[in-house]
Design brief:
The complex is a heterodimer of chains A (about 280) and B (about 200).
Chain A: H1 3-8, H2 10-14, E1 30-35, H3 44-52, H4 60-64, E2 73-78, H5 81-86, E3 92-97, H6 106-110, E4 116-118, E5 124-126, H7 136-140, E6 147-148, H8 154-157, E7 178-179, H9 185-197, H10 210-214, E8 220-224, H11 231-238, E9 256-257, E10 269-272
Parallel strand pairs in A: 1-10
Antiparallel strand pairs in A: 1-8, 2-3, 4-5, 6-7, 9-10
Chain B: H1 2-20, H2 24-27, H3 55-61, H4 66-69, H5 84-91, H6 101-112, H7 132-142, H8 147-155, H9 172-179, E1 183-184, E2 192-193, H10 199-202
Antiparallel strand pairs in B: 1-2
Classes of the chains: A alpha+beta (about 280), B mainly alpha (about 200).
């Protein structure tokens, strides 16, 4: 970010909270919907993410210390008490958790070197070669979806000839930098470039993230919220969820919600609550 | 000694070109041997190629469009090195130069059915994504600028070199200096636009 750009666009760069219709005239605002009713917890999305984004497999020891690098993890929630007594075979509930691409991201404001900032299409970016590894962002992230490279993983994770499997469109991160889900920005950039050459906007369904692509039950929907007709925008509207609101005024029987909305992070991911037969 | 003299001659001719010729596009990025604001050398190292390919004959004297050989530049992120059959497509039919040493080498590779191991000259770090297509579409096709100028913004006047040599810094500050400029949208309007200023546009 150059100084002249900083001065020229000062007011827009200072906007830290989204406002209504912020992306109305913009071309892109990437967003996601995850239907927990369709999620079976199969971990295909996590695997796809590992393959797409050059995530290292850290091994048992590092994993037990909480140093796993899964940008997208499946969280498990077990029923408790009376519920489990009544429905013992319910088992776990699953929730895929990745960077929520907050509109007012807690991680962005605390970075001492500006390695993480907001892109014009509403993503929370992470620039690896600017990151100095202070880990403030991770400490300030309420979702705990930022992952730190404690070790030099590449040589261990991809011994020769496994480096051949690496995605050339994604940097292989080295020791000492923070990383997180990017909504597969390499795919988005490619699609945007193609669309610009053809003089149009990226069409709905033209580009999707690796996790959404791999999901066998299509629980994950990805798309452009700035495009009213996109599937994502339609679900957001049907669920009466507004991007710039920290408390949704919606009908009670709707399943959509955003996680930790009350913290005013304004996340870009909507979850659709699971319907269990005890509730039906 | 002879080689050194030749090098010096190439150097001199480049210097003269950068100083006097078409002006802005070739000067930008600093004079040869100078450094940019962010401390990068504008001039890259000499890269010795398996065949000393004369860009000056092809693009200079013959006036062949850069994209006749680097054909992917207009539709992909990378410009591409032409396949051997692209060279042979013409040189099979050009009898007059068939006994020149460089062409003999070319035919050797062709008969061995081996690709020519060209070396990379303009090498960006792995964390940068540069897209040829967008730049070519914007400045060559939309704005209709001459191809030698459009490619020359980053590659220098390759049409005056034999084998290509990096003459621009290709550093971030140098890229941004051009992205900040107000470029005319097209020849018909006075509307301008800048290149993208978002980190993730280039950093991956």
């Amino acid at each position: 970010m150059s100084l002249s750009n900083l001065i020229k666009n000062w007011s827009s760069l200072r906007v830290k909270r989204p406002y209504e219709d912020q992306y109305k005239d913009k071309d892109y605002k990437w967003a996601m919907v995850i239907d927990l009713d369709a999620c079976t917890g199969c971990n295909a999305c996590t695997t796809a993410c590992y393959a797409e984004n050059n995530l290292p497999v850290v091994g048992r020891e590092a994993f037990s210390k909480g140093q796993a690098m899964h940008w997208l993890r499946i969280e498990r929630y077990w029923g408790e008490g009376e519920h489990m007594d009544k429905f013992p075979d319910h088992g776990a509930q699953f929730l895929p958790m990745m960077c929520q691409q907050c509109e007012s991201a807690p991680c962005e404001v605390v970075c001492p070197v500006g390695a993480t900032h907001h892109t014009p299409d509403g993503l929370n970016s992470q620039v690896y070669n600017r990151c100095i590894g202070s880990r403030y962002c991770s400490a300030n992230c309420p979702y705990k979806v930022r992952y730190f490279n404690w070790w030099q993983y590449p040589e261990r994770a991809w011994p020769n000839p496994l480096e051949q499997q690496l995605n050339p469109d994604v940097t292989v991160r080295s020791k000492g930098v923070m990383e997180k889900c990017t909504f597969c920005v390499q795919r988005l950039t490619e699609a945007k470039n193609r669309a610009r050459t053809e003089g149009r906007r990226v069409a709905d369904g033209e580009v999707t993230t690796a996790c959404a692509q791999a999901c066998p039950t299509s629980a994950i929907t990805f798309g452009n919220l700035a495009d009213d007709k996109s599937q994502v925008a339609r679900i957001w509207e049907r669920q009466q969820i507004k991007l710039a609101s920290d408390k949704q005024e919606k009908d009670e029987n709707l399943r959509g919600y955003r996680i930790f909305e009350e913290l005013r992070t304004y996340p870009s991911v909507v979850y659709l609550e699971r319907v269990r037969d005890s509730e039906a | 000694m002879k080689v050194r003299m030749k090098n010096i001659l190439v150097w001199l001719s480049l210097l003269v070109l950068c100083g006097t010729a078409t002006g802005e596009p070739f000067v930008q990025g600093g004079a040869i041997g100078s450094q940019t604001d962010d401390g990068y050398n504008a001039l890259g190292p000499v890269v010795e190629q398996p065949i000393e390919f004369p860009h000056n004959t092809h693009a200079g004297q013959m006036g062949i469009n850069c994209m006749y050989c680097h054909t992917y530049a207009r539709r992909s992120a990378v410009s591409g090195i032409p396949r051997l059959d692209k060279c042979m497509g013409c040189h099979k039919l050009i009898e007059s130069v068939k006994d020149k040493p460089r062409i003999k080498k070319l035919f050797e590779y062709w008969e061995k059915k081996e690709p020519i191991p060209w070396k990379k000259v303009h090498d960006l770090p792995d964390f940068v994504r540069f897209n040829h297509e967008r730049h070519i579409q914007r400045f060559y096709f939309r704005e209709d600028r001459p191809v030698r100028e459009v490619c020359g913004y980053c590659h220098g006047d390759v049409a005056s070199m034999t084998t290509a040599r990096r003459v621009k810094a290709l550093s971030m500050g140098w890229c941004v200096s051009c992205h900040q400029k107000d470029h005319l949208e097209n020849a018909a309007t006075t509307k301008t636009s800048n290149g993208p200023n978002d980190c993730w546009q280039c950093h991956k």
